[in-house]
Write the structure tokens for this entry.
Amino acid sequence: MSADDKKQQDIIRLTLSDSVVPDIHIDGLPEFEAGWVWLAGAGPGDPGLLTLHAVNALKQADKVVYDALVSEDILSLVRPEAELFYAGKRGGKPSWNQQDITDKLIELAKQGHRVLRLKGGDPFIFGRGGEEAHALVAADISFRMIPGISAGVGGLGYAGIPATHRDVNHAVTFVTGHLAGKGEAELLDWASIAKASPVIVIYMAMSRLAVIADLLIQAGRSADEPVAIVTHATTPRQRIATGRLADAAQLAADNGLEPPSIIVIGAVVDLAETLHWFGDKPV
């Protein structure tokens, strides 16, 4: 059987069980107490990547404040009695601002509810989870942090691209690119980033791809360096496009790729040709 003909693993699908408690019972998970806020990561999309702590939170929460990247499959684990609050942000569309979100968390907690703040990926990697935790501390609200699998690790894994590989790189740099090229002062020192490690993983950068590629090439990265764009990682809509750093923006345009996407630059991209196992083969 050729690599192209091999069976691809399907995404896990979750359904509500007849009881509130999941079919698998695990002792020792914490009780979600009234008046607390749990800040939890839902992972990059596949419900199977939820942590046990996140599932435990979903099964106990009274109120769930969730983001755009949290799927209906994941929300299917919420108790029927729980109330959902959509706090997702999508470019150009009306949405809650960060102050609205923190105010709602505090309000619900002070009313004595068990409040779950559910965010895609890991809330503490470019997810503003730390800011929300600070607001809870200032309001004297008890909280728990529940990390999730970040798209920059889990999403690349589903694309067959290890973030590190012993034969390729011993360091990786994670950055956010949504403000690259905006304003007189760059948010990041791209020249230092270009030299920092062999592999760069960039979040929230689709609209700034051309600018970022130019900045990195000016700082010494090769225009021919491999780049991959992974969109809707770990979901049935996952797509992967690979090419040259200099052509990154055109690569996205030619393949109709859109956010949410992760961009990875470096020789690990070449591993996808052999290691891809989920969804369509990279183009």
